[in-house]
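User: Molybdenum cofactor biosynthesis protein B. Structure?
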Amino acid sequence: MRVQPNAVFVPLNIAVLTVSDTRTVENDTSGALLADRLVQVGHRLIARVLLKDDVYKIRAQVATWIADEQVQAVLITGGTGFSGRDSTPEAVECLLERRVDGFGELFRALSILDVGASTVHSRALAGLSNRTLVCCLSGYTGACRTAWEGILAEQLDARHRPCNFVKHLRV
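Assistant: Predicted structure:
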């Protein structure tokens, strides 16, 4: 990671949402990985919720966090595949004021090293709304690790240069 000299780490308030019809908080390894990683680097886990894959429940939870002045980023794992129940992108996309198209593109480029051509099934996306970053990731724990290590760790760090998301978020 390229770090600006004398830059200061800015801890962010981050909410984690797991979307799954089969997982529980006890066996949610993807949500746990994201929560653990963000806390390890110094961010604050402000909320962690697990919801069934229901477009309206997902949308309502994310909209609540976008409206909450304390939440600066929302990381969502699950519901981004092609099964009939996968609806996270449809739930979230209408809430975004500005899409971060490069997020999904970079995630798929990194993911190919892990899952090969299966990366074309990824509907990972991100965007900004009300100065809140919202990221939708696969429910696969390896994909969450790839996204954290390859994108989120740097982009959620104010010290990272030449640019990061922190200056676009509520402070």
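The chain has five helices and six strands. The first strand starts at residue 13 and ends at 19.
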